[in-house]
Every structure is written in structure tokens, then in C-alpha cells.
Design goal:
Helices cover about 40% and strands about 15% of the residues. The protein has about 675 residues and is α/β, with parallel strands linked by helices. This is Aminotransferase class III-fold pyridoxal phosphate-dependent enzyme.
């Protein structure tokens, strides 16, 4: 029997090494179906046959095709003759299909994530083989095309022998015999009901990864189901002690550890409100892993906090080193990380913003302190904010937010707040067209000041691109006109860049992207890089001097967070980093706009850099929050973590991955979104 070797990659943690060793002891062989599983030609093969059916005046229904997936000997031409009532030249039809298939399959490569999973199998020292109804010639040709021709310890094919093909277990039995592995020490990856049945009848645990043609078929016999190879955390899947992924039914899924489940139930009863059912255990880059082994692509980078993704190694090391020296100290003292961070923030901010306040603990806190600073320096009280604006969670900022449902439960609000229409050109409050509107959404703010305020407006606070409000990007000239209005009327212009700051738009700040420098700028979220909480305010020199006891917070200026923020700015400032954000952002926008053309429920895809929103509508073109929330929930089944606008009251899916995303990861994200949208369509 093959005796696997436990491989210990350098630099991995003890926990990771233990998990690897456990998996190697549990599994000696991983067997893969080829067609549809490692490689997905079914749609193109279907298309080649369907073209001939259409020439005879009959469509080839997908359900007819899907019913014969994985079988040998079903004669489609006999089926076509029954439909038409006349003979079909089988030889000619089959030759035309063969030529057309070659054309369609020429550029088709392996399914996303396959190379990573095969590499992980090899790294674990486990034998791998192919078990397929296809012919050896077919497999040899297309494994070479996919770049996965090497490394197979066995290849078992039906080669046209119907009696030995799936759903019979013969091929799997032969593969196990050739490797000298008992069935209980093997795992099979399949895509179709016939393949799953063959593996299970041979006594092998089976993971199913359906493709576009088999996703709707009955796959309940499999032990686990994943929608793609990208979701798979291989050590978790292979371990016999845990059932990773999405159990297909109770009969084949492992029973949960009663102690663990009891502990979880005990904890849940004490939550003030229940969290999501998903239990996560680790994050890496743009991916988050749940305790059941599934891998999710996080489209919202935490809550837009993780500008450098999960567990960025440089942030982790910086935090580890700083924690060994000093974690926190009262903010009245100087520390090296805080001094360095203040200097760096002044360097990268718009030139007029020369003062840095780091004594805020959250974005909400920073925004509220900015309002206080404006009120003290102007001697005025009122605050102007925009429809759909978010601004924060404190009582003051909830009152200033631009959504009535957020203010509704509270009898008292920040006094003197005036809400004005936002520059949402798709749904213009004034029913204007941008080419001829004359930026009425700015001009009419004068009327709100004259007739809806006390006439004593201290500041105007807005997000340059609305975050929770639906990713509304202002039209050209809007922010310039807004600043001009504020300066004419002695109003402090505050940009809330808590979501847009530190590279999200492909520039250090959205202010840089739009070429408008505000009088104050608040920041937070992404500055922590990998999740360290930090926030603050940048102001003009003239706005300095408000006493600390009015605007300081207990954990503002935390030393550990400052060290992480300083490293974050270093990474973002490296040559090519922001350029890559702009390039990948433009690529994602193009792909999502192409996807929008394939479905009826996307009204618009809009954004700048990697701050993108997908506007979801109903059949009449109206905002559809119900469908938006449904897509976000269904996204979990497709390996996607998605957030919606206005806390589920809005109709925009927010696409804001970590700024470190690569082109390959951008394709992975867009592919998953496409599968999600097409499954609903």
C-alpha cells in the first residue's frame, strides 16, 4: 500500500502542520472525474449538438441533454429522428459535431481553482488519479491543454465500454486496485449523479462540484457539495474527522460534536442580537474560511476595513512586534508609532490639511468630532448632510444620516440637521438630465439654507462616494461646485472618507481622485490595513485648537493600531500599488457591465477604483431591495460574501474587495458573481 509522507511546508504554523498530518493519515488517494469536474466542456459539447438540432427545426432542451450526462450509448440522433419523423445522416452529423467541438473546446482550460487543489494534493503526498467515462485519447489531449497532464498515478477510462462505465462502480474499483488503496481511505471528486453513484457504490466518500449543466440535477447522494474548486480548503475536506463543505443530507453528513454545539448554543442565547449562522475560523488575502472548510471570496473586505486583506503578513508581523513593546498608553504621551503616523498622514493628505487628530476610536466618533470642530470655529450650529448619507452609528450621526429608518426609533436627534438631495443622476431628485441640469442639486442647497435651516450652518458633511447609501458617484463638477458654495457662505466642507480613503478609489483619497480639497477630512476603516481599529481627522490649520476633552476618545491614538496604520500607508504607497487598484477596478467594472448585459435585473454598475456598486431593479426598472437581499444570501452558496446598501433597505450590491486583489482573483470574483446572477436569471 502506498505510504503517504507528511509534508511540512516551511513557515507554516504548528496548527497548520497538525491539520496536514491528520489529513494525510486519513486519505491515501484522491480520485477525480475529468469531463465536467476538472474540465467543463459540457456547455460547448451541448452547443455543438444543439446547432444541428436547430437546423432540423427543433431545439435541444437542456433537460434532455442533462439527463444523459455521464452515460454512454444514448443516441441523440435517434431522438432527433423521433422529433422530425425523418432520417438523420448520423455519420455526417457526428463528423460536423466533432469539427465544431474542436473549435469550441480549443481555448477551454481547467475549471478555476483546479490547479490549486491538485497542487495541494501533491503537497500532501497523496496519490491522485483520473476515473472517467471518457476515452484515453480525449483525456490525454485535454489534460495537456489544461496544463494538468502530469502527476496522475492512475487513469481509468471506460473507452466506450458501456458495461464498465459509470454509474457502475467498476472504474473506481479498478483505480483503487491499481493504487493498492482501500475505499475508506480514498476521496472522489465528481460532477454528475452517475459519477456520484459510481463512487458511493465503490464505498468511496464523494465530493460533488457541479458544473453549469449539472447544477440542477439530483446530487443528494454525495457526502459534500461545493459550487467551485475555489471554495475548497483541502485539508478540511479530506479529514475524516470533520465533514467540510455543505452536507448534502443528514444521512451522510457527520454528526456535530455535541459538546461544541452545546457551547455554541449557550453562547448564542447571550448575544444581544443573533449573528449570522456562518462560523469563520481564518482569513487569508481576499478569502475567508468557515469552520466547515468552505472558502469564501469576501467582496466587502470585512466591512471595508481590510484594505490589505486578511492576515496580511507585514501587518501581522508589525502588530506582533509592537505588541511585545507597547500596546496602549494614555494619549497625552508621545510614542514613536503615533509621531511617525501623524507625519505620514500630513504628507499624503491634500496640501491644505496640515493638522492630524488621531484621538478618535471609530469613524462615527471622527465625524461627530468634525462637526464639533466646525461648530466651535464658526460659532454656528446647523449641519447639512445628503440623502442616503451614512456618517456613523452614534446618536448624533444617526440623526445626521440620510435615511429616515435609521432615525425613526429615537425621539431626540442632533438639532439643526438639514438633509438635502444627493447627486444620484440615475434617480435624480429634480428629474433632470446631467447634460442640461446645471447641477441643480448644488444650486438648490442655497434654498435649503435660506428656508429649511436656521441660517447658521456650521458645516456640510458628505461622503465623496456614498458608502452605505448605494455607491452613488457624483457627476463631474459636483464637488467643485459644492466647495465653491461652502466658501461663499462660510460653511466648513467635510469629506467623510472613512470608506473611500487610503486607496479605495485608486488614489490615496477620493479628494485626490476628484481634485477637490475639503476643509476637513475624516478617515478610518481601511487605514488599519488588516482590521486594526483606527480613525481620525485631517483639518486645515485654521480649524485647530478645539480642546481635547471635547473630541478625544479613550482608545483614540492606540499605539498598536498606529503601528499597523503606518505599515498600511507604507504598503499602499509603494510603486504600482494604487495603479494596480485603478487597473483592476477598471477591469472589474468592464466585466460586471458585461454581466449586466446578460441579465434583466441590473440597472447600472457604477464605481471608481475598487469601490463598485451593482444597482438591482425589478421588471419595471424600480429599485428591488428584496432581490438584492436574495442575491446576497444566495451568494453564500456560491462562495461569495456580499453586502447590500442601506442595511438591507437598499437595492445595491457592494463590490469592494481588498485592494491587494490580483487579476486572477478578480476573475475568480467576477466568475462567481456571474454564476450567481445567471442562476437567478
Amino acid at each position: 500500500m502506498h505510504e503517504p509522507v507528511a509534508v511540512r511546508p516551511p513557515g507554516r504554523s504548528t496548527e497548520a502542520r497538525v491539520r496536514t498530518e491528520v489529513c494525510v493519515k486519513d486519505v491515501d488517494a484522491v480520485l477525480f472525474d475529468f469531463d465536467g469536474t476538472l474540465w467543463d466542456p459540457e456547455s460547448e459539447i451541448f452547443r455543438a449538438h444543439a446547432e444541428i438540432f436547430l437546423e432540423f427545426g427543433h431545439p435541444l432542451p437542456r433537460e434532455v441533454w442533462s439527463s444523459v450526462v455521464g452515460t454512454i450509448g444514448f443516441d441523440l440522433w435517434t431522438h432527433l429522428e423521433r422529433l422530425t419523423g425523418r432520417p438523420v445522416d448520423r455519420r455526417q452529423a457526428q463528423e460536423r459535431v466533432r469539427v465544431r467541438q474542436r473549435e469550441l473546446l480549443g481555448g477551454l482550460s481547467s475549471r478555476p481553482g483546479v490547479h490549486r487543489v491538485l497542487g495541494a494534493v501533491d503537497a500532501l503526498g497523496i496519490s491522485r488519479g483520473i476515473v472517467s467515462n471518457s476515452t484515453r485519447e480525449w483525456i490525454a489531449r485535454y489534460t495537456r491543454q489544461c496544463g494538468i497532464a502530469d502527476g496522475w498515478r492512475t487513469v481509468q477510462c471506460a473507452d466506450g465500454d458501456r458495461s464498465g462505465a459509470k454509474p457502475e462502480p467498476n472504474l473506481y474499483v479498478a483505480a483503487l486496485a491499481s493504487l493498492g488503496v482501500p475505499p475508506e481511505r480514498a476521496v472522489a471528486f465528481e460532477d454528475s449523479p452517475s459519477g456520484v453513484r459510481a463512487a458511493k457504490r465503490a464505498g468511496i466518500r464523494c465530493v460533488v462540484i457541479p458544473n453549469s449543466m449539472t447544477a440542477s440535477l439530483d446530487l443528494h447522494e454525495a457526502d459534500l457539495r461545493f459550487e467551485s474548486f475555489e471554495q475548497i480548503d483541502l485539508p478540511g475536506v479530506l479529514s475524516r474527522k470533520t465533514r467540510r463543505g455543505k452536507p448534502m443530507n443528514q444521512a451522510v453528513s457527520a454528526k456535530p460534536d455535541p459538546v461544541s454545539e452545546q457551547d455554541v448554543a449557550g453562547a448564542l442565547q447571550h448575544y444581544y442580537y443573533l449573528p449570522d449562522e456562518l462560523r469563520v475560523v481564518k482569513g487569508e488575502g481576499v478569502h475567508l474560511y468557515s469552520e466547515d472548510g468552505r472558502r469564501y471570496f469576501d467582496c466587502s473586505s470585512g466591512t471595508f476595513n481590510l484594505s490589505l486583506g486578511y492576515a496580511h503578513p507585514e501587518i501581522v508581523e508589525t502588530v506582533r512586534e509592537q505588541a511585545g513593546r507597547l500596546i496602549h498608553v494614555t494619549s497625552k504621551f508621545q510614542t514613536e508609532p503615533l509621531n511617525a503616523l501623524v507625519s505620514k498622514l500630513a504628507e499624503v493628505s491634500p496640501p491644505n490639511l496640515t493638522r492630524v487628530h488621531l484621538k478618535s476610536a471609530s469613524g462615527s466618533d471622527a465625524n461627530e468630532s468634525a462637526v464639533k470642530i466646525a461648530q466651535v470655529h464658526t460659532g454656528k450650529s446647523d449641519v447639512i448632510t445628503l440623502f442616503r448619507g451614512h456618517l456613523g452609528q452614534t446618536l448624533g450621526m444617526i440623526g445626521a444620516s440620510g435615511a429616515a429608518f435609521r432615525r425613526a426609533p429615537f425621539p431626540s436627534h442632533l438639532p439643526g440637521v438639514v438633509h438635502v438631495p444627493d447627486p444620484h443622476c440615475l434617480r435624480c431628485f429634480y428629474r433632470q438630465e446631467r447634460d442640461t441640469c446645471g447641477l441643480l442639486c448644488v444650486e438648490r442647497i442655497n434654498d435649503f439654507i435660506d428656508y429649511a435651516s436656521t441660517g447658521r450652518v456650521a458645516c456640510l458633511v458628505l461622503e465623496p462616494i456614498s458608502g452605505n447609501g448605494g455607491n452613488v458617484v457624483p457627476p463631474d463638477g459636483y464637488l467643485q461646485a459644492l466647495k465653491k458654495l461652502c466658501e461663499e457662505r462660510g460653511i466648513v466642507l467635510v469629506f467623510d472618507e472613512i470608506q473611500t480613503g487610503f486607496g479605495r478609489t485608486g488614489r490615496m483619497f477620493a479628494a485626490d481622485h476628484f481634485g477637490v480639497a475639503p476643509h476637513m477630512l475624516t478617515f478610518g476603516k481601511g487605514l488599519g490595513g488588516a482590521g486594526m481599529p483606527i480613525a481620525g481627522i485631517l483639518t486645515e490649520e485654521r480649524l485647530a485648537g478645539v480642546e481635547g476633552h471635547h473630541i478625544n476618545s479613550t482608545f483614540g491614538g492606540n499605539v498598536l493600531a498606529a503601528a499597523a496604520a503606518l505599515k498600511t500607508l507604507e504598503v499602499i504607497g509603494r510603486p504600482g500599488f494604487l495603479e494596480n487598484v485603478r487597473t483592476i477596478g477598471a477591469y472589474v467594472l468592464d466585466r460586471l457591465r458585461d454581466l449586466a448585459s446578460k441579465v434583466s435585473f441590473v440597472r447600472e454598475v457604477r464605481g471608481v477604483g475598487l469601490m463598485i456598486g451593482i444597482d438591482i431593479v425589478d421588471g419595471a426598472g424600480r429599485p428591488d431591495p428584496r432581490l438584492t437581499n436574495h442575491l446576497a444570501e444566495l451568494g453564500l452558496e456560491h462562495g461569495l460574501l456580499l453586502r447590500t446598501s442601506l442595511y438591507g433597505h437598499g437595492n445595491v450590491l457592494k463590490v469592494r474587495p481588498a485592494l491587494i486583489i490580483t487579476r486572477q482573483e478578480a476573475d475568480e470574483m467576477c466568475d462567481l458573481l456571474e454564476r450567481l446572477f445567471l442562476s437567478v436569471s
